[in-house]
Amino acid sequence: MSSGDIDALLRVTSPTYVGRTSPDVAFGTLDGPVGRLVLAVTGRGVVACSYEDENTVFERVSNEVSSFIGGDPRRLDPVRRELDAYFSGRLRTFTVPIDLQLATPFARTVLQKMLTVPYGTVTTYREIAERIGRPRALRAVGNALGGNPVCVIVPCHRVVESETVLGGYAGGPVAKERLLRVERGAGRPPLSP
């Protein structure tokens, strides 16, 4: 077995092995108060922060970004630290760069608009559709948000059906409610699912 083969084997089997060269995509997980998040980071930024299972995210990243994937704590740890700070209420704005290459061009437009929705506030599907100049594209906006590859960091949880109805979320209604509670403060009542 050559040293390249050993390096490849270690990269696949050891979650903390970095090897001689950094992988194109750093891949790992974070267990937090809203469940397990699967993380993937490219040289451009966070390409995935997903509630989907690890195999699904790994396959999608492998097919659409790069098959050179491995653990790289130097690139994953800043994302994990910011997520931990966010969940504890100490971080309001993420500073880690985002890579939206897993989103369609239309979805990128929607997700970039989501980055302008302030911490602690909510908006509606209709408001987002109007802000991107597509007031009748409510379903398309909903689909773009439902397919957000960078959940939490790109705050699609801040979109609600109305001021009293929570609406759907990739992590489920309990996760969405928890995220909104973190941002709104525990004293405010939750929205209805």
Automatic annotation (TrEMBL):
<dbReference type="GO" id="GO:0032259">
    <property type="term" value="P:methylation"/>
</dbReference>
<dbReference type="InterPro" id="IPR036217">
    <property type="entry name" value="MethylDNA_cys_MeTrfase_DNAb"/>
</dbReference>
<keyword id="KW-0227">DNA damage</keyword>
<feature type="domain" description="Methylated-DNA-[protein]-cysteine S-methyltransferase DNA binding">
    <location>
        <begin position="105"/>
        <end position="184"/>
    </location>
</feature>
<dbReference type="InterPro" id="IPR001497">
    <property type="entry name" value="MethylDNA_cys_MeTrfase_AS"/>
</dbReference>
<dbReference type="Pfam" id="PF02870">
    <property type="entry name" value="Methyltransf_1N"/>
</dbReference>
<dbReference type="InterPro" id="IPR008332">
    <property type="entry name" value="MethylG_MeTrfase_N"/>
</dbReference>
<keyword id="KW-0489">Methyltransferase</keyword>
<dbReference type="GO" id="GO:0008168">
    <property type="term" value="F:methyltransferase activity"/>
</dbReference>
<dbReference type="InterPro" id="IPR036388">
    <property type="entry name" value="WH-like_DNA-bd_sf"/>
</dbReference>
<dbReference type="InterPro" id="IPR014048">
    <property type="entry name" value="MethylDNA_cys_MeTrfase_DNA-bd"/>
</dbReference>
<keyword id="KW-0808">Transferase</keyword>
<dbReference type="InterPro" id="IPR036631">
    <property type="entry name" value="MGMT_N_sf"/>
</dbReference>
<feature type="domain" description="Methylguanine DNA methyltransferase ribonuclease-like">
    <location>
        <begin position="27"/>
        <end position="100"/>
    </location>
</feature>
<protein>
    <submittedName>
        <fullName>Methylated-DNA--protein-cysteine methyltransferase</fullName>
    </submittedName>
</protein>
<keyword id="KW-0234">DNA repair</keyword>
<dbReference type="Pfam" id="PF01035">
    <property type="entry name" value="DNA_binding_1"/>
</dbReference>
